[in-house]
Amino acid sequence: MMKIWHLQLVYLLLTFAVTNSCASTDKWSSTVTGNNITYKTTEAKKPVKDYKGNYATIVYLENLGFDKLGQNSNKEDVNWLLSQGYRVIEFDYKKNKNASATTINKDIIAINNQLASSNFCGLNNCSTNNSYILFEGYRIAKNIPYFKDNPDVYNTPEAYTEGDMLYMDIIYPANTTKTVPIVLSFSYSNSYATFDSKTGKLTNANKDLRTFLPYTFAGFNDSFLEGLPAHNMAWAIADHPKYCPWGSGKPINGKNDTYKSYQVNPDAVQKVKSAIRTLRSMSNDLRLSGNIGIYGFSRGSTAGSMAIGDKNVPEFENAGFNTGVSDDVQAAALGPGVFDYTQIYNSLNDGDENLETRCPWAWGRLEDNHNLWETMGASYLVESSKTAPVLFFYNTDDAPYYHDQITHFKTKLDRLKVTNSTLINYGTGHAVPQTSEALNTLYSFFKKHLNPSTVTVSIKKNVAYFTENNDSILNYQIAEKSLNGTYKRANYIHPLYTLDGAVLTEDFPEDHLHHRGIFWAWHQLYIGDKRIGDGWEIENFSWDVTSVKELKQLDNSKAIQANVFWKSNQWLDANSNEKPVVKETTTIRVYPKETNYRLIDIEISLLALEDNMRIGGSEDEKGYGGFSPRIKLPNDIVFTGSDGIVIPNNLPVKADGWLDISGSFTKEYKQSGITILCHPNNPQPSNQWILRSKRSMQNAVYPYPGAKAVFLSKTQPTTLRYRLIIHNGNANDFDVSTLYDIYKNLDKKNSDQN
């Protein structure tokens, strides 16, 4: 017992030693809660101080209005921070519901502004370049080296002849079973070597300015990075690649301040790539998923933009640390910056006069050295659609050249079909997003691309189920299903769900009991002159689904492939068994949900197993047959094609490429719908549709004219491809035409098969 008591005493003394028992409490006025909250300040026994003697400080937000990710107790994490030499100021929100994700950013802004003013919680000695806001459950990895600087690049000051190390700081969840993505930002404050003319020596005065608050977070009310943990993400900030005062720098034997307000390649891009590799190399130790995003503003945007491209330039690769680790990023949010220096002369007096004057000092005249100028910007590194998705953000009343830079860069991304979007006029001037609405746009963008939803597929004996985050998407019917032994059917989709979870399709509807969900079938089935069945009416016809397997995908979609044999009791072998007449191979691929829609691809491949096999639609002027959705039809149903509203007719109507069906499918009478895209490689013509607004299916007619049966080959499969867009709203609420253009250009085979 004495030994146990002694160990407990030692632990208590160690804890006392770590915290130094120097703690005080008081109140702080919170914008988020609308009242005073309690804070507690604890000094470290061995405090870390910056060059000026001010204290490294962590403002630790605890008991927030959302779940904590890290599994340590707050006491454990605070004691760890104290052991690292940080002064810790704990803000206790007492689970206030207003201290929620994104809303908490208001207090982040207020805290940073007070820290920057050297007047925070009664303290005037908190470091303005070594103070951070951490959410409960998170820790900080400080001063992680990512590149050794070459002093010959910017040549400032002259005494700086041995390169310094560039560093990053990483804020990560502590003790968590769940890995998280991370967003990396390159500082828009420069660290640099400083020469003291009085002592004749270099000093550390400006070596650690990654988060110099007057120039970074506080200077622009930038709360995005520090707010990421509220969205289950980590974040990191790295020294800006230009290790030199922003207004200085020159080539060897060049003019002074040649590099005023810009950076130069290959130095900058090499550092960016090395930082990403270094960060990814630490994923296992810090419980990071390996998915990395870039957040950049102003000079930080110019630097960060160099991470998104897919072009391989040998001179830019494999410099720095962790060579062999991927330097790919999965997304980037880029504010105003410079992405293509060849565009700076588009307009005069638009804010980039400094570049117009000094860039020729470094690279010669643009007219004579266009290729060299190109290599200095991110646009040069963008070569194909493999470029990471980008969200641009800017205010149109900022310096006009920023708008021009983004416009030209976005035009290139659009041409290459790189996913991109813009957030415009969230504020005024040269600023970052600060409102909850604008910040949510940024957070949602990174959630989508760094931690995308996962589609799962479960293949059972009777049915294959597609789900996403426990939400049902669709079922594919494998085993035969009937209504009291009649209308036996298999090989179709039902139920198909809306994004809100309502059932969109119908099975065994009273008006047409043979209709079933999303199906593909034909009235006419001939071998030579013998009619052997009717797959539409399900007469003398059956589907034998012999196998269903999952296909490997290179993205977050899921796909199955079913092998199906068509059989008829009118076509028997020598033993009076039904003999297969057509081999059908059908692939169903489901993509994760986007903001307001989901994509589902269906490919049907038909190969005749008998000579002179023919299929056809109804033997009348309608000619219906082929790919057919049987969906619920509310009273406000609207059909829309590429040329506008389409009115159903008794006979086929034309709607080139795609057709949308929208209405109030849910109990809440919210608009939603389904868009059907026909791939242009389908047998032509494929622009004929049978549409009905009540008690019927909708039909993308094939073959046309449907009354005339067409041959199926025994050697070359007849392939039909369709894409469904399950969406909220109607056809005017998203860009169907662009989605159709993307679909048209897809390769015929879009998955790696087992």
Class inferred from helices and paired strands: alpha+beta
| Strand proportion | 25-35%
- Quickly count the helices: 11
Largest sheet: 9 strands, antiparallel
Mean pLDDT: 92
Question: Which oligomerization state do the chains in this entry correspond to?
Answer: single chain
Task: Give the structure's gist in a few sentences.
This protein is of the alpha+beta class and 754 residues long. Helix content is 16%, strand content 31%. The protein is elongated.
Structure notes:
- Keywords: Signal.
- InterPro entries: AB_hydrolase_fold (IPR029058), DUF6807 (IPR029475).
- Residues 1-23 form the signal peptide.
- This is DUF6807 family protein.
- Pfam families: DUF6807.
- This protein has 11 helices and 39 strands.
- Strands 25-26-27-28-39-35-34-31-32 form a 9-stranded antiparallel β-sheet, covered by helices on one side. Strands 6-7-11-8-12-13-14-15 form an 8-stranded mixed β-sheet, with helices on both faces. Strands 1-2-4-3-5 form a 5-stranded mixed β-sheet, with helices on both faces.
- It has 754 residues and is of the alpha+beta class.
- The chain is elongated and about 105 Å long.
- The longest helix has 18 residues, at 2-19.
- 16% of the residues lie in helices and 31% in strands.
- The model is unreliable at 1-21 and 748-754 (pLDDT under 50).
- Strand 14 (390-394), helix 9 and strand 15 form a beta-alpha-beta unit.
